[in-house]
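REQUEST FORM: STRUCTURE PREDICTION
Request ID: SP-0412
Submitted by: Lab K.M.
Chain count: 1
Length (residues): 307
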Amino acid sequence: MKRSLFVIAILLSSCMSHVNKPDPDIYVTSTGDKVVFLYDYYKDYLTAIRTNPKQRDSLYKAKVLEPIFAKYLLDTTPIDPPFIHDTVGFDSIITALEQQRAETEKIISQALTECRKDLSSKKSVFIYIKTAIPAMKKYMDLKDMGGIAGWTTRDDRISITIDPTIDGWRKMLKPTVAHEFTHIYCLGKIENDSSFKWTVLDRIIFEGLADSYAHSIYPNVKCPWTSALTKEAEISLWNKLKSKLYIQDWKLSNEILFGSDNYPGWGGYTLGYEIVQSALKNNPNFTIKKLMDISSEQILNMSDYKL
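STATUS: Completed
RESULT:
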């Protein structure tokens, strides 16, 4: 009898765990793309640490990282810290994102409609909306980015982190969607190209094309990472990179794009944007979309940036 009660207790516990597991609704846009908000996982985590405050790291892994990865196949990105030690103000960020959910969905849907007028993609895109967490400040400060950070994790998946308590997030959301959708479009074109190597040059041009397209359809929004360098600093960075352009090193490329002890912050983004803009200026018959059909080396040769 005791054994039967024990088995029943285990089964009930398993069922309750399944029932309580977050299962966010999926919003389908007018273009057939999908948007899902992941804040329920973070709310689940906050509830758990209130009774187990010493288990923050293990609970974050169990309540947030593992279930999100398992269900949505999100890749690990630099804006996903493996912990949340500081949760001060986290509730207010989640609440604000919940309150702005309908507006956020509308903005994203409009942006995707505008993007698909120019860049046709056979695949539907799945966009994951993450909640900005205090620990992100160790990696990047969203205030400098207008409250938005985007990341294309696969050729059909986009991750967008939002802090709606930061002024400017509405203005930055459409350009961010356009930037990431450009990545989706370009990845679809190079996925069967065995000659594509993801060199340093490929990475900075990849970002330069995305920012150039985003600015072309939203000209009144200037993304700060496209103008992070003075002209002198830009020339200095270009001279430093000339011998490294064809290196295939993802870590080095990230340092050049995001900044490090050896490279200025957002330097690679600014340089990639300026190269693409130079190529467009020198070749007025080329559109940004047409540049997406040719190699990074060809784009470089069309610009004023010479080796």
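NOTES: The chain has two domains: 21-190, 200-302.
Reviewed by: T.R.
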